[in-house]
Amino acid sequence: MTRTLDLAVIPGDGIGPEVIGEALTVMRAAVGESLEVRETHYPLGASHYLATGEILSDDTLAALGQHDAILLGAVGGDPRDPTLAGGIIERGLLLKLRFALDHHVNLRPTRLYPGVSSPLASPGDIDFVVVREGTEGPYVGNGGAIRVGTPHEVANETSVNTAYGVERVVRFAFAEAERRRKKLTLVHKTNVLVHAGSLWQRTVDRVAAEHPEVRVDYLHVDATMIFLVTDPARFDVIVTDNLFGDIVTDLAGAVGGGIGIAASGNLDPSGAHPSMFEPVHGSAPDIAGRGIADPTAAILSAALLLRHTGHPEAAERIERAVEADLASRSGAEARSTEAIGASIAAAVRQYS
Ligand SMILES: NC(=O)C1=CN([C@@H]2O[C@H](COP(=O)(O)OP(=O)(O)OC[C@H]3O[C@@H](n4cnc5c(N)ncnc54)[C@H](O)[C@@H]3O)[C@@H](O)[C@H]2O)C=CC1
Ligand SMILES: CC(C)CC(=O)C(=O)O
Ligand SMILES: [Mg+2]
């Protein structure tokens, strides 16, 4: 009997539709006849907002919540466009989705694939995962400004960290470490952000007692930047808050061979809501429309989606094909978005 996957697709803005087109081609090749992927496309994003005035209606949000999973490209327009000021799309669409669908685990793996060159001189064996908290921190929109535009302006952005929210993501990170090389690094800034830092540190200490096999480490976020460049092989599982995780994972993507291959999943591990998979990168307005974006991050995000929704063989086929494709790139001429997608899809079919 053919199984079905009820998939919501949000191509988004800029390079989003370009890379999602290739991710869907590869996904269809990977599942073949074994899985019927029913795609519903949602034209959300900055362009959609500018054309229609809709950012994310309650009805659309409710409809998205009914799917098995969501595949998203990237959203956000030109940061200089005054009609998009105030993070109206990032906040009103992307973060709203993550919060409403309780995506408290933002899982971002980094692996230096064989044959991929890192900008680091001696990268070593890079293979770690960042477990970024996804529903709290300074991204909740708890803040405000007074005397705006005057020399006396005061602007506040409050980081919200709850015991419940921190514990569930820390528990997820320990479980991840148990499955991997049994090392967990808490990344924070406990020497300055003392209230939130204390909660994170105490939570890690308490949960660590239940995981005696896991080596626990702590790094301030600034020092983490050093070690991501000088010794990334030291990391196995990093657990951190929403803002630090956002920053750490762009650098992680770069040292792991480029932002164009960095994938992610926004998970509600309870399964109560559909999880959402997307590249780490944004809509890249600087290269949009030129057909040169690397679709690999979106393709690997589709693999994460398939594994999460119970289709590990299809996920494996995509990962093997990506690995082979990446290994073949060194010294070769740069290819278009479409050519990379077609080549990975062809390799996937060979493994079927
Ligand atoms: N999840 C999402 O939807 C995200 C949306 N954004 C939004 O995207 C817009 C642009 O943000 P930026 O800060 O410029 O970050 P960005 O990730 O879009 O671009 C940063 C740099 O990486 C390059 N790049 C990104 N993806 C690439 C790919 N697949 N292949 C080759 N090069 C790639 C871009 O050309 C650019 O030079 C903004 O509106 C921002 O708010 C940013 C990050 C995540
Ligand atoms: C709007 C931002 C929270 C998106 C972003 O940069 C990310 O999730 O990595
Ligand atoms: Mg980011």
UniProtKB/TrEMBL annotation:
Main location: cytoplasm
Cofactor(s) needed by this chain: Mn(2+); Mg(2+)
Name of the protein described by the UniProt record: 3-isopropylmalate dehydrogenase
Quaternary organization: Homodimer.
Free-text remark on how the cofactor is bound: Binds 1 Mg(2+) or Mn(2+) ion per subunit.
GO molecular function: 3-isopropylmalate dehydrogenase activity; magnesium ion binding; NAD binding
Record-linked InterPro entries: ICDH/IPMDH, IsoCit/isopropylmalate_DH_CS, IsoPropMal-DH-like_dom, LeuB_actb
Pfam family, one: Iso_dh
UniProt site positions, description: Important for catalysis: Y139, K189
Domain Isopropylmalate dehydrogenase-like: 6-344
Chain sites annotated for binding substrate: R98, R108, R132, D222
